[in-house]
Amino acid sequence: MGVAAGPIRVVVAKPGLDGHDRGAKVIARALRDAGMEVIYTGLHQTPEQVVDTAIQEDADAIGLSILSGAHNTLFARVIELLKERDAEDIKVFGGGIIPEEDIPLLKEKGVAEIFTPGATTTAIVEWVRENVRHPTEA
Questions:
Q1: pTM of the entire structure?
Q2: CB neighbours of 92 closer than 8 A, spacing ≥ 6?
Q3: pLDDT tens figures, 18-28
């Protein structure tokens, strides 16, 4: 979304019908504590709402948390909407209950990284720092 300065901005979202958001809140707090600006969208967001929020907030990345089993559909729709809105520079990463065999397909569709259960907050923060716009970029 254009030229960005300042801290990395991440939208953390819970798309779909999944009602469990503890993990998303833990990740949001870890990113915030690491100096990033975090916008948490809350539960039951549509892919359209997630993408609208990311564009409105001038986000550098979207972190999706999906436990419901709808990861293939929801990740793909978010990626598709970003392309439609000419916002492909917003990186998408995610985590949740995602079978290992689905991860290569998700990455082929454009998901930058998937974190499965057991991933540490430190690893996620480091990945975002290394793979999303660096704060010193202008």
A1: 0.92
A2: 61, 62, 64, 75, 78, 79, 82, 110, 111, 112
A3: 888 999 999 99
